[in-house]
Write a structure and sequence with these properties.
With 262 residues, this protein is α+β, with helices and mostly antiparallel strands. It has 3 domains: 2-88, no CATH class; 115-126 and 230-258, no CATH class; 133-226, Chitinase A, domain 3 (Roll), CATH 3.10.50. Helices cover 57% and strands 15% of the residues. Helix 1 (2-17) packs across helix 3 (56-78), helix 1 runs parallel beside helix 4 and helix 2 packs across helix 3 (56-78). It is elongated.
């Protein structure tokens, strides 16, 4: 019960901390304590940002919620819970989190990431990861070299690679798709596999089984192409967040270096 009461009190305090000055217009009073219009305005704004429409019904619900919160807070204070050590610690933690978030939001608003910086990051960091070639390969994976050689013999007799992959491959994920591994960089595979794959011509199959830590592979190269990364617009939002994080890390590091800590 104590934890539930503490949670209710903390929730109510956080609601109160978000409000503006109490003399900005009264909605109602609860045992003489004013609930200002700015409290409702604040929460309406937050909900509107998430797509909820500002309506009289919404405002009535918010008003009732604030009244209920105020009643519970007053009862808690009558019991002296606002002096409880655990409660005061939680209130201070909530205050710290609110101020921390407000400072970060203010900094990001005052220091927006430029379009030029995002495009530069895209060119130097994102596109650079997609240099070289990509390969579209299939494989059949089996446990022994003897099994692999039997499959190679079946392929030479005219059996279809897709059918043998579905029937024989121990890699059930790709096997169900005829051994299809999709488009990937050679770096995505173990060295033995990638070394054999990049030597193949389009449409060709390895002459001998390729041994790796997973077993024995028979590899078919479907196609190859220049590596193609995502378009700038597809990753722009992620780049913005990354650059914002870098700015914040530098800011906090600089503030920490200037702080007097004893």
């Amino acid at each position: 019960m104590q934890k539930k009461r503490l949670a209710l009190i903390l929730s109510a305090v956080m609601l109160s901390a978000a409000a503006f000055a109490a003399d900005a217009g009264k909605v109602t009073t609860v045992n003489g304590v004013a609930i200002p219009e700015t409290k409702i305005d604040f929460f309406v704004k937050q909900l509107a940002a998430r797509g909820q429409q500002d309506t009289p019904d919404l405002r009535a619900k918010l008003r009732e919620d604030l009244i209920r919160n105020e009643i519970v807070v007053q009862e808690a204070m009558k019991k002296g819970l606002d002096k409880d050590a655990e409660v005061t610690s939680q209130i201070e933690m909530a205050r710290t989190q609110i101020l921390f978030g407000a400072f970060i939001n203010d900094f990001l608003k005052s220091n927006p990431v430029s379009e030029a910086a995002m495009k530069s990051f895209y060119d130097t960091q994102v596109k650079a990861q997609f240099s070289g070639k990509e390969y579209h390969a299939r494989h059949i994976l089996v446990a022994t070299e003897a099994e692999a050689k039997t499959i190679l013999a079946d392929l030479k007799k005219g059996k279809k690679f897709d059918d043998l992959a579905k029937a024989k491959s121990t890699d059930k994920g790709s096997g169900a798709n005829g051994g299809d591994l999709g488009w990937s960089s050679p770096a995505d595979y173990v060295k033995e596999f990638s070394d054999a794959m990049v030597k193949l011509s389009k449409g060709k199959i390895t002459d001998a089984p390729v041994k790796s830590q997973f077993g024995f592979h028979i590899i078919k190269l479907e196609d190859m192409r220049d590596a193609k990364g995502p378009a700038y617009e597809e990753v722009k939002a992620e780049i913005q967040k990354e650059l914002q994080n870098q700015m914040l890390q530098k800011l906090i590091t600089d503030l920490r270096s200037k702080a007097k800590v004893e």
